[in-house]
Amino acid sequence: MHDIFSQIFNQELKQLGSDLQSMAAQVATAIERASESLRNGDLIVAEQVIDADERINDLQRDIDDMCVMLLARQQPVADNLRTVISALRMAQTLERQGDLARHLATIARGRYPEPPVPEPVLGLILRMADLAVRAGADVSRLVATQDLELAATIEANDAQMDALHRRSFQMILDPANELSRQQVVDAVLMGRFLERFGDHSTSVARRMTYLVSGTTAPVVRDDGGAR
């Protein structure tokens, strides 16, 4: 009987991992399409991102339910407990990344057929979007492979995003760029959404490091700090 319960538990853990991989892949697609909608003013792609966010939310709820069920019914300990708790927290972070991609697509849709902001501010925002796309793809691969070298790369690359985010404020405040009030708001929001996407990627990378190695690392808070 113990062997049967053990087999069921292992199957449920495997399903949990599969759902988390699917969620990370969908988030990577969402940020890639959101970036495309900003770059090309593509209304159809923007709508796809907005519609797809509900599927990401559904997966997050499924993962939450499974983790709660595993904790209550199986009462895992040691490595298995770490797996369940890590999956629960990573799913929450990925769901927030999906929301951020949706927010970007909503701005692109709302300003269609014009770009949200003019050059050179748009160019900087798109550079941030490119970094977010890379981070999303790296996180998707990390969840699938648990490669700690990739986790370290994700965290290191976030410094580039932070530097561009700081630069965005300088450009927004530069009177030579002649932004309207709406464009100032859009530029600030887009920069913030992309910077937070990078922070959440770092959070997933650190949690994966903890899952694989058992070592603690500072975790990015929702307000951008570390804990």
Any overview of this molecule?
The protein has 227 residues and is mainly alpha-helical. It contains six helices and no strands. It has helices at 2-40, 43-73, 78-111, 121-145, 148-173, 181-213. Helix 2 (43-73) packs antiparallel against helix 3. Mean pLDDT is 91; it is low at 219-227.
Key terms:
single chain; mainly alpha; 0% strand
Biggest sheet details = none
What share of the residues does DSSP label as strand, in percent? under 5%
**3D shape:** elongated
Low confidence ranges: 219-227
- The span between the termini is 42 Å
Computed Rg: 19 Å
What is the count of β-strands? Answer: 0
What is the average per-residue confidence, as pLDDT, rounded to a whole number?
Answer: 91
**H/E topology pattern:** HHHHHH
H/I helix tally: 6
How would you summarize the topology of this molecule?
Blueprint: H1 2-40, H2 43-73, H3 78-111, H4 121-145, H5 148-173, H6 181-213
Helix pairs in contact: 1-2, 1-3, 1-4, 2-3, 3-6, 4-5, 4-6, 5-6
Write a concise synopsis of the structure shown.
With 227 residues, the protein is mainly α. It is built from six helices and no strands.
